[in-house]
Structure formats: C-alpha cells, structure tokens
Amino acid sequence: ALAAALAQIEKQFGKGSIMRMGDGEAAEDIQVVSTGSLGLDIALGVGGLPRGRVVEIYGPESSGKTTLTLQVIAELQKLGGTAAFIDAEHALDVQYASKLGVNVPELLISQPDTGEQALEITDALVRSGSIDMIVIDSVAALVPKAEIEGEMGDSLPGLQARLNVAGAAQADRHDQAHEL
After folding, report:
1. Which of 63, 74, 78, 110 maximizes the CB count within 10 A of its CB?
2. Which of 62, 78, 76, 58 is nearest to 136 (CA)?
3. Which superfamily is assigned to 54-177 in CATH?
4. Which residues form the RecA family profile domain (predicted)?
C-alpha cells in the first residue's frame, strides 16, 4: 500500500517529490553557523543555524531575538563571513552589538523607511551573492508604504499580511536558488 501511494505521489507531483531520508539525495551535509550557545546549537540538532536557509526567530518582546541574531553574526564574522542587518525598527544598539563580539565596522546596516524598501534592499543583497547572512529586525516592523503615507484611520485590511507573504515568497525563491 505504501509503495502504491509513493508511486502515485511521484506520478502526480514528479520524481523526487517524496523520498526516504536514507536514499542519499534527501540527506545532505548542511553547513551551519554556531549561535554562540553550545546548548542551543545542540538543541537545534545540526549544530547551529543552517546556511543558505530562511530562519525565523520568533518570541515575545524582549526575549532575546535580536541578541541571538547579533551573536550569530559575530560567529559568522569570526569565520570570515559578511552579514547585513536590516534594522526596520531603527533600534540597533551598536555598542551592545560590539560587546557581543560583532565587528561593527564590517557589518552592513540598513534602516529602511518602508517594508517594501526593506524587501528590495534584502533582494539586492541576496542577488549579489556576496552576503552570508541577512537579519531583518523585525518582520513586525515592516510597515507598508501605503500605511505610512495614509491618513490615520484609513482602512487598509491585510496590507501588512500581503507584504509579509510577498517577502516570504521572495525569501523562499532565493532559498531554493541560492545556497549561500
């Protein structure tokens, strides 16, 4: 029954749409960047954050998301990598980043005015093929241009969600096309 189901899936969706992890093609050696925390690296199961992948760090306000990203940037820089920080919140504390080990003079930073601008900058950086890590802090702060330029009380249902979906789709395309 399983063989028939697998054959049907491959017939409908194409060869490679489903496979056993032990078949070789599915299992790949994933390059990672340490988070700077041995415990977290172990908990992640691969020894850090995977390179060339989109990773969302989610949690409540002031839970350490930005600190974690800065620690990973510091680890990446130690390996000779280049990082960019898209500061949508306009709140990056450069002195704090330096204390965490970030080589601040080498860090690329952008403080975009709109969500669209942030995504366009991110897209240009990814397309350059020269960036090893891009942090967007934060997705919640990616405010659409129409919302910024609109009047208070304007009804713009779903605008933020559409921007986030567009950004996620763009990131997924890059994730598949560019193994950084």
Report:
1. 74
2. 58
3. P-loop containing nucleotide triphosphate hydrolases (3.40.50.300)
4. 29-180
